[in-house]
């Protein structure tokens, strides 16, 4: 559920752009039942569309959880792979289960551990997706920007911090503001007000 749109608008979007994939429906139910936060359905659709347009060879995702966002990436891939990284093995195993059920296992690589450190192993990243601890977004970009491909794209979720990016003064909000500022100064960036705020950036 979006914290940026009103409930009426969110309901309209959900009812208009309905979900046909049974595995994604099961993943959404799993997220609700276990109070596990995932990206919004329309944010996932955005990832799918962007992947179709970009036609990447390598997507690296930091903070994959049980694979909901990565599943959208994988569904859109014509070639290449998406690397799922999460620090909890149980999350990665659940992601593997969903990918096998959806017939997408051959489009994915599953890794357990520190997302930033593992991601350093990959070069020529076409899409870098950030959904790990918000305190680490800026650290992640600074450590991985040289690992991007020539036209690499960075996508970060939750950059509006529950719609309170300006009013909150806690450490996470401060770190997110610093991250957003860095991206604005060093990349061609835009924040799309879907879900909890989705930043998309490319190097100029």
Describe the structure.
The chain is of the alpha/beta class and 204 residues long. The protein is built from 8 helices and 7 strands. It has helices at residues 7-16, 22-33, 41-54, 68-76, 89-101, 115-119, 137-144, 171-186; strands at residues 58-62, 81-86, 108-112, 125-130, 148-157, 188-192, 198-202. It has a 7-stranded mixed beta sheet, sandwiched between helices. β1 (58-62), α4 (68-76) and β2 form a beta-alpha-beta unit. α3 packs parallel to α4. The longest helix has 16 residues, at 171-186.
Backbone CA Rg: 16 Å
Strand order of the largest sheet: 3-2-1-4-5-7-6
Q: In the CATH hierarchy, what is the architecture at level 2?
A: 3-Layer(aba) Sandwich
The DSSP helix count reads 8
Secondary-structure element order, as H and E?
HHHEHEHEHEHEHEE
CATH class descriptor = Alpha Beta
- As a percent range, the share of strand residues is 15-25%
Largest sheet report? 7 strands, mixed
CATH homology group: Vaccinia Virus protein VP39
The helix content is: 40-55%
Residue-averaged pLDDT = 92
């Amino acid at each position: 559920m979006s914290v940026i749109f009103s409930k009426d608008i969110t309901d309209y979007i959900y009812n208009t752009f309905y979900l046909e994939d049974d595995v994604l429906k099961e993943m959404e139910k799993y997220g609700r039942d276990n109070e596990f936060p995932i990206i919004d359905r329309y944010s996932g659709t955005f990832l799918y569309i962007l992947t179709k347009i970009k036609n990447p060879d390598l997507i690296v995702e930091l903070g994959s959880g049980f694979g909901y966002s990565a599943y959208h990436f994988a569904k859109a891939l014509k070639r290449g792979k998406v690397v799922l990284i999460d620090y909890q093995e149980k999350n990665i195993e659940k992601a593997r289960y969903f990918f096998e059920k959806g017939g997408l296992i051959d489009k994915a690589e599953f890794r357990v551990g520190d997302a930033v450190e593992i991601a350093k192993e990959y070069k020529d990243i076409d899409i870098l997706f950030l959904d790990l601890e918000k305190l680490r977004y800026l650290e992640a970009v600074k450590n991985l920007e040289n690992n991007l491909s020539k036209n690499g794209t960075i996508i970060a979720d939750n950059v509006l911090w529950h719609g309170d990016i300006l009013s909150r003064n806690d450490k996470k909000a401060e770190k997110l503001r610093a991250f957003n500022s860095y991206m604005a100064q060093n990349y061609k960036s835009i924040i799309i007000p879907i879900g909890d705020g989705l930043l998309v950036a490319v190097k100029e």
